Amino acid sequence: MTIRILPAVGDPDAAHSLGGLLGQLPGAEPSAPVGDSTLLLDTLASLAAASLEELPEVVLVHERIGPAPALELIREIALRFPAVGVVLVTADAGPALYSAAMDAGARGIAGIPLAYDELAARVQGAAQWATGVRRHLGAAATRSPPGPAASWSRSRAPRAGSAPP
């Protein structure tokens, strides 16, 4: 499975380091990093306008992205693009930030300094989650809603032990 990854990193040195590790992950297809939160949201919006399938499976948000704070950005991505798994890249991988990131909609946290095994596990987990969501959304889009007769007959059907209307 190919995993498309879009890193959002404002710091060029961090972007270079992250890009190097992403290039080593098996099945990873990293995009060029975007440098700020506005550009990230615009990029995701343009990809989503084309098709849900155009969105990356994983977005990596560096803790020092701006102008929007990282947790607000994660919340915005989770709300606007629910089929994208978000991983926060941060030096503070403590329980308080972990909880806040999960509440915002992140699928995981990768600690700085980045370690190959940890990054691979977080990216893989977020990608699997995104694939499941996309499968669910695709199945929902292909099902047709019940017609008025089906809705009416279910709501008017007698319940066990009750008299017919």
Automatic annotation (TrEMBL):
- Which PROSITE patterns does the entry mention? RESPONSE_REGULATORY
Where does the record place the Response regulatory domain?
Answer: 4-127
Q: Where is this region: Disordered?
A: 138-165
Instruction: Quote the biased-composition stretches of kind Low complexity, using this chain's numbering.
Output: 149-165
Parts forming coiled coils: none
Biological process according to GO: phosphorelay signal transduction system
State the protein's name.
Response regulatory domain-containing protein
The protein's organism comes out as Streptomyces violaceusniger
